[in-house]
Amino acid sequence: MNASHHRKFEEVTLRTEPIFQGKIISLQVDTVQLPNGATATREIVKHPGAVAVLALTDDGRMLVVEQYRKPLEKSQIEIPAGKLDAGEDPLDAAKRELEEETGYRCESLRHISSFYTSPGFADEILHLYASEQLSKGEANPDEDEFLELEAITLEQAQAYMREGRISDAKTVMAVYAWQLYKLTGSF
């Protein structure tokens, strides 16, 4: 696609009103001019980005953590993940988050995909990596993180998805990437 095709749908920002500035996210309301000349407002969440790791153990299990997710008012089972610090390289952040949440270290990571989590209202991009060369260390979660580590089989992961215990996009995508990897040998 050429650049003019992308501009065909462009919404030009006329005004930005900051609403909230938090530790992790900020919220703004943009007034935009639509392609047909009309104006509209867009509520936008700004996020620094995040990383997640599909970590596979020597015996063919995926490392996951269970934690309570307040917006959902329930616990979820997810792959290790976390937000990028300002200016942090996603690869370094992925290694850091893996060790903090699980206690496992990895020498190398393979990039699977980077994707926007909710482009209708947020600019958060998530970088998904995979690692198979893990060494056990000691977990060091953030002081406000309460996690329980589990190493699960693909069949357990699929059952957790059916039960709704795994239902976030990054972990669902990781399970499908793992299934593809088991079938084809590549992500």
UniProtKB/TrEMBL annotation:
Transmembrane segments: none annotated. GO terms for cellular component: cytosol. Residues 45-181 form the Nudix hydrolase domain. PROSITE patterns: NUDIX (PS51462), NUDIX_BOX (PS00893). Its EC number is 3.-.-.-. Its cofactor is Mg(2+). GO terms for biological process: nucleoside phosphate metabolic process; ribose phosphate metabolic process. The keyword Acetylation does not apply. GO terms for molecular function: hydrolase activity. Keywords: Hydrolase. This is Methanol dehydrogenase activator.
